[in-house]
Design a protein that fits this description.
- The protein has 20 helices and 22 strands.
- With 698 residues, it is of the alpha/beta class.
- The chain has a domain of 185 residues: 3-Layer(bba) Sandwich (FAD/NAD(P)-binding domain), CATH 3.50.50.60.
- Strands 1-20-16-19-18-17-7 form a 7-stranded mixed beta sheet, with helices on both faces. It has a 5-stranded parallel beta sheet with strand order 9-3-2-13-22, covered by helices on one side.
- α2 packs across α4.
- The longest helix has 31 residues.
- The chain is globular, with a radius of gyration of 25 Å.
- The two termini are 35 Å apart.
- The N terminus is likely disordered.
- Keywords: Chromatin regulator, Oxidoreductase.
- One of its GO terms (molecular function) is polyamine oxidase activity.
- Pathway: Amine and polyamine degradation; spermine degradation.
Length: 698
């Protein structure tokens, strides 16, 4: 290949950047062109200039040991509700016209992006001015999937996709890589062939096309998912050789994705699952009451957090599932039931954001001067609040506490447990675009992924023995011998020592397991005989006078638009999430009803008893012992990478949200970790096959 010649896809003109988000309707397959436009949706051009208050996003929100509370309705129905269709951009309306409407803006669910702290060379400050000029739509599509603008990923470097890092060959490879990604993303229901990828690239660059296509295919960036043609495809990874066998421990998203990918590569695979169902911390329960009222409730992971580049968004397109955008308006109510004053609300939200800014600037200076320092984020925030006199009167303090509770929800733990230095280390990688609900619940994905997979339920893995000759997985009185094993159990199980490893895990990995935090979030899902809160909003919050209970039912999600019935879910975060697990389900539901009636009865709105209610108990679930991971004081993002490392010279591998440094605590993070480890297992299997062939030749 000529080193001084750049590659350009052969097309008459550069396509315009797509600006539509994938929301309410299935993204219909677009006609493939030589250089397709990005059909995944609007990409944030400037991460540094992104909305500082992103829509609440969902992390894995589990519950296996959820408890039901059946309460017959004691109120008469207000009549038949109008059907609520999924809408792309619903018009925001005030549910109570007698009061001023809440300010239309997004409530922060995750963390802010601080460019001065998390400096990322691939997202420069001046990107807002240069991205439209320097990057075409294909590069933007690749960015949405997680590829850097003008450099290689660690995976690509390890795969030796170019002979020399930097220079024309790398630049040309990146153009080819981006083109192939965008080409498949333009129609995710088709199998993209190597020849099709080559059609719009000059023939002299065939080697680069071959390299990029192979890398993207084997690492699960193209031709993955649940479209019929993709499910039927089989790769010839072991022509003439006996394929290795792999035991996958855990049938959550990571395990299911890895198993499906490994099977398509030609491996022999079986999955061991301790529960009697697939999905792990993704769980959907069907709720029903009298008069045919029913709904599907996600008591685990619930929201697709950013649709641009999200692999779950790809699955939704392939399955023809519409997506409901989580609307931005989130009214807040005082304990008296009155709406929070818009001016006070705006003031405290701005002050809260400024305090976070100040904490992060302090963090940067401390890291630069002391090199190694960490304190709890909660302590730093409280110190700055006192120094700057923020939220000194009662209403302002209640509002400030609500924002603290929202941050504890984002991280599934008390702010006093969070690392000030690294709590938001994953922010630069956040996926852009709308946050969405899936109609019918996320188990739609789970059941589709588990279909026809060899999953053996009710097999609780107790220990894994590994050595140079292979792996033996022990589940009760059963033994499963294999060449390699993939462990996808939650971090909570590893912390509890739920699975024994022989020999023991390396000290470095054991220390990372203990350093990383693993938190708790709980839910109360309530199916009502009718929707009394209105169809205009997807979220609303309530304030509390007692700071120690700030996380108790502080945020409500309305699933009426997507669940099939009038379903309301109350969240419990922070200290309240732990206390919640000691309360009886009946008392918990009574407390939620007391709060709801305090909000709506002053407006003359009757709050009926729910026809059914569910209370999660994820901390008591022996298959998870909690909800999702966070960066604790003394930990860092490096611990996610350590947890992801294989042991035994490539005998036992690890996947799951807590092994994904870029996307921890999310459903798509678990999904992507499964893809990552399938590629790693293939790499090791090929290495062993090559070594075996060399030994035989001697």
């Amino acid at each position: 290949m000529e080193q001084n010649q750049e590659i350009r896809p052969e097309c008459p003109e550069k396509p315009k950047m797509a600006t539509d988000n994938l929301t309410n309707a299935q993204a219909s397959p677009t006609k493939e062109a030589a250089t397709p436009s990005n059909t995944d949706g609007k990409i944030d051009k400037d991460v540094a200039a992104a909305d500082p208050n992103p829509t609440p996003t969902a992390k894995l929100q589990p519950s296996e040991s959820d408890e039901e509370v059946d309460l017959p309705s004691i109120s008469e129905s207000l009549g038949e509700e109008e059907s609520s269709d999924l809408v792309t951009e619903p018009q925001s309306q005030n549910p109570n016209p007698l009061e001023p409407g809440p300010r239309a803006r997004k409530r922060r669910r995750r963390k802010r992006f601080f460019t001065e702290i998390n400096a990322n060379p691939d997202f420069p400050r001046n990107r807002r001015n240069s991205v439209g000029k320097e990057l075409d739509s294909e590069a933007i599509t690749a960015m949405s999937v997680g590829f850097p603008v003008n450099s290689l990923t660690e995976e690509e470097i390890e795969a030796n996709v170019v002979s020399i890092i930097g220079g024309k060959e790398q630049a040309n490879y990146i153009v080819v890589r981006n083109h192939i990604i965008a080409l498949w993303r333009s129609n995710v229901s088709n199998w993209l062939t190597r020849d099709h990828a080559l059609e719009s690239i000059r023939l002299e660059h065939k080697t680069l096309v071959d390299t990029a296509y192979k890398f993207l295919l084997e690492h699960g960036y193209i031709n993955f998912g649940l479209a019929p043609v993709i499910k039927e495809a089989k790769l010839r990874s072991f022509d003439g050789l006996e394929p290795p066998n792999v035991v996958v421990v855990g049938a959550g998203l990571a395990g299911l994705v890895a198993a499906r990918q490994l099977l398509s590569m030609g491996f022999r695979v079986l999955v061991l699952e301790g529960r009697d169902r697939p999905g792990g911390r993704v769980k959907t329960r069907k709720m029903r009451g009298g008069d045919g009222v029913e709904a599907m409730a996600d008591v685990g992971g619930s929201v697709l957090t950013g649709i641009n580049g999200n692999p779950l968004g790809v699955l939704a397109r392939q399955l023809g599932l519409p997506l409901h955008k989580v609307r931005d308006i989130c009214p807040l109510y005082l304990p008296s039931g009155e709406l929070v004053d818009v001016g006070v609300d705006s003031k405290i939200e701005a002050s809260f954001n400024k305090l976070l800014d100040r904490v992060c600037k302090l963090r940067q200076s401390m890291i630069e001067e002391i090199k190694s320092v960490d304190v709890p984020l909660g302590e730093a925030l409280e110190t700055f609040r006192l120094v700057y006199g923020v939220a000194e009167d009662q209403e302002e303090r209640m509002l400030f506490d609500w924002h603290l509770a929202n941050l504890e929800y984002a991280n599934a733990t008390l702010l006093g447990n969070l690392s000030m230095a690294y709590w938001d280390q994953d922010d630069p990688y956040e996926m852009g675009g709308d946050h969405c609900f899936i109609p019918g619940g996320n188990e739609t994905f789970v059941h589709a992924l588990a279909e026809n997979l060899p999953v053996f339920y009710g097999n609780v893995v107790e220990s894994i023995r590994y050595g140079s000759d292979g792996v033996v997985v022990y589940a009760g009185d059963k033994e499963f011998s294999c060449d390699m094993a993939l462990c996808t159990v939650p971090l909570g199980v590893l912390k509890k020592g739920g699975i024994g490893f022989v020999p023991e895990l390396p000290e470095k990995k054991k220390e990372a397991i203990q350093r990383l935090g693993y938190g708790l979030l709980n839910k109360v899902a309530m199916l009502f005989p009718y929707n009394f809160w209105g169809e205009e909003i997807d979220t609303f919050g309530r304030l509390t006078e007692d700071s120690s209970t700030r996380g108790e039912f502080f945020l409500f999600y309305s699933y009426s638009s997507v669940s099939g019935g009038p379903l309301l879910v109350a969240l419990v975060a922070g200290d309240a999430a732990e206390r919640f697990e000691t309360m009886s389900p009946t008392d918990s539901v009574k407390r939620v009803l007391q709060i709801l009636r305090g909000i709506y009865h002053p407006k003359g709105i009757v709050v009926p008893d729910p026809v059914q209610a569910l209370c999660s108990r994820w901390g008591q679930d022996k298959f998870s012992y909690g909800s999702y991971s966070y960066v604790a004081v003394g930990s860092s993002g490096d611990d996610y990478d350590i947890l992801a490392e294989s042991v035994g010279d490539g005998r036992v591998f690890f996947a799951g949200e807590a092994t994904n440094k870029q996307y921890p605590a999310t459903m798509h993070g678990a999904f992507l970790s499964g893809m990552r480890e399938a590629a790693n297992i293939l790499r090791v299997a090929r290495r062993r096959a090559s070594e075996s062939a060399s030994n035989l030749a001697k």
